[in-house]
Structure formats: C-alpha cells, structure tokens
Amino acid sequence: NAGVTQTPKFQVLKTGQSMTLQCAQDMNHEYMSWYRQDPGMGLRLIHYSVGAGITDQGEVPNGYNVSRSTTEDFPLRLLSAAPSQTSVYFCASSFTGEVGKLFFGSGTQLSVL
Amino acid sequence: SQQGEEDPQALSIQEGENATMNCSYKTSINNLQWYRQNSGRGLVHLILIRSNEREKHSGRLRVTLDTSKKSSSLLITASRAADTASYFCATDAGRGSTLGRLYFGRGTQLTVWP
Hints:
The complex is a heterodimer. Chain A has no helices and eleven strands. By secondary structure, chain A is mainly beta. In chain A, strands 2, 4, 5, 6, 9, 10 and 11 form a seven-stranded mixed beta sheet that branches. In chain A, strands 1-3-8-7 form a four-stranded antiparallel beta sheet, with no helix packed on it. By secondary structure, chain B is mainly β. Chain B has strands at 5-7, 10-14, 19-24, 31-37, 43-50, 55-58, 61-66, 71-76, 85-91, 103-104, 108-113. In chain B, the strands form two sheets. In chain B, strands 2, 4, 5, 9, 10 and 11 form a six-stranded mixed beta sheet that branches. Chain B is globular. Chains A and B meet through β4, β5 and β10 of A and β4, β5 and β10 of B.
C-alpha cells in the first residue's frame, strides 16, 4: 500500500493564481482531511470529509475549496492564492471509527509570492 | 479554542535519558492522541488514549491522562537519537463534538544528543 499520497511536494505560485493540491489514499478510509502547518501555529484543520459526497469546514476554510467524488481522492483547491496561504499542507485520512488515528501524507510546501 | 498546548516548546537531552512532554487542553474530550513529526515529513500516529483511561503504554512510550486537570503527558524512556522529532498532542471536542474535528497543539521539539 502507498498510504496517503500528496502531489506536488513543492509549489510556487504568484498572488491571484489558482491551483489544486492532490491527495489520494489507498486504505479505503472514509475520513479525509486537510491541515496547514505554519511555524509556531501547529496544525490547523482546513476542510474534512467523512465520506464521498460529504465535506465540511474546519478552523481555517476561507480561500479553499474541497470536493469528495470518490473514497480515494480529496483535492484541495486554492481559488486565488494569497501570501497568507504560504504554508505546508498535509492531507490525512482514517477510518471514521478511529478518527484520532490519522495517517498523514508527506506534505506540500506552498509558497505564494 | 480547544487547541492543546504542549510544554515545553523545546527539550534537549542525552541518549538514554527519559523525555517527558506535557499537553493541556481546554474542554472535555473523547480521546487524546500523540503524534511524532520528523523534520520535513508528515506526522505519524503514536498512541491514542480514551477519556476513560488513565495510562497507556506502547513500547518505550507511556501516556497518562488526567481529565480533571485537562492534561496529558508523554514519557519516552531510554531515549535514542532517532527519537529526535517534534511531538504533538491532538484532541477532539468531547461528547457531541463534530466527528472529524481534531485540534493539534504547537508541538514540543525534542532533541536527543548521542
């Protein structure tokens, strides 16, 4: 099993550009989520999903969209990138019965200039 | 905010010593988890302790939970250089909380010197 796969690993955007961060898992997990990690801030939940077709907002959802058309994939879209979105983004998944036991991807380092 | 807070922010010890990290949180919880993050990598789940448990062990890890004080501690015994990493606690928001909403602390950076 590959686990949780995130692409790309690094990305540089200009302010106003849009892009999609990809996340895929092959563990048949119902629950998937996106976090951002900023220095000194810990991880903050952006959006999450408890199953295909179901998404909800986390702590910091503004400027991001998600969709969940399949169990495996949970892409994160930046609509109009801003410098404040410079961060490291992590996708995580788990079975809904054990949401605490998250499996994380290796992260995407995003810089917005 | 329900966010947990780890203490200390940084800890530096010699190999073979024990490392203790603490986590405090603000509201009731269903469970609390500890994760490790090596530099430049994703987080790895270490251990989960439920609100009705007081202590849990996994190899060299020992986690305690005191719900009356809203605090938890992670003890790593006989530390190794490979234990060098950041350690995070994560909580939910307790009974009635929305499934899937987890709150992470800012982490403790542990450095173990050979």
